[in-house]
Amino acid sequence: MPPEKLRVLIADDDEGDRKQITRVLKQAGISCECVETVNAEDAVAACAEGVVDCAFVDYKMPGRDGLYGIAALHERFPYMAIIMVTGHGDEEIAAEAMKLGASDYIPKAQIHARSVKRAIDSALGKAALRRQVAQQRNELENFASVLVHDLAGPLTAMRGYAGIIESELRPESIDRGSVAGHAHSLVGAIERMGALVGTLHEYTKVDAKVTFEPVDMNQVMENTMSNLQQVIEKRGARVTHGELPAVTGNAPQLAQLLQNLIGNSIKYCEAAQPTVEVTANSDGEGMWRFAVKDNGIGISKEYYQQVFEPFKRLHGRGKYEGTGLGLATCKKIVERHGGAIWCESAPNDGTTLFFNLPSVPG
Question: What is the pTM (predicted TM-score) of this model?
Answer without folding.
Answer: 0.53
